[in-house]
Amino acid sequence: MQNLPEIENLIKLISKLPGLGPKSAKRIILKMINNRQEILKPLVNNLNDVFKNIERCKICGILKSNNDSCNNCENKSKKYSKICVVENISDQWAIESSSIFQGSFHILGGTISDSSNSNNRENLLINSLIERINKDNIEEVILATSATVEGQTTAFYIQDSLKKINVKISKLAQGLPVGGEIENSDDGTLISAFKNRKDLVSSN
Ligand SMILES: [Zn+2]
Q: Do residue 48 and residue 67 come from a single domain?
């Protein structure tokens, strides 16, 4: 292969994406180059649009257009009494596609022991969760973190952070296999985990 820094850099970048290594990165790049007008050009424009226009809401963590207000946490017309707390946007998407939960989401953006999340406690949007519960008179907070050690530690940490607030806290049933991640669970498992969720005893 000729030494083309543009291509080499692209291989390195694409290899960082989930599920892809250098070999599949090279196949993807060839496909793009061989389809300059149909794939490469619109992809460049689309990525640029996403970079410029899409961001995570600083309050609830959901993906939103940065020109619009957030229709998850700032939606004035739709009132929700429940908030479902998840680790990542992929978990929100999995729960939405199962249709088991009709309410508002709160996306932490990781777990408290996630090493990729540098000063993670501050970044986990827990303060804004507390503000949302108070401001919107939320009745129930459903902790839908993964059945991993990190997910469960995070759930416990949130439960502890909410102990002074008068809100019902529940946690997904352990129908999720141990080590089970929300985003990889099938609809049936998610539906059963929601239906059988357990109330956590409030200490106040
Ligand atoms: Zn929001």
A: no
The model's pLDDT over 99-130, given as tens digits with 9 standing for 90+, comes to 999 899 999 998 887 655 555 667 789 999 99
pLDDT digits (tens, 9 = 90+) for 44-96: 999 999 999 999 999 999 999 998 999 899 877 777 899 999 999 999 999 99
Distance of alpha carbon 87 from alpha carbon 143, whole angstroms: 9
Give just the sign of the alpha carbon dihedral 183, 159, 149, 57: positive
Question: Does residue 83 sit in the same domain as residue 145?
Answer: yes
The rounded Å distance from CA 6 to ligand 1 centre is: 37
Q: How far is the CA of 41 from the centre of ligand 1 (A)?
A: 32
Positive or negative: CA dihedral 16, 20, 21, 24: negative
CATH of the domain at 86: 3.40.1360.10
Question: Which are the contacts of 175, defined by CB distance < 8 A and separation ≥ 6?
Answer: 189, 192, 193, 196
Ligand 1 centre to CA of 24 (Å) is 35
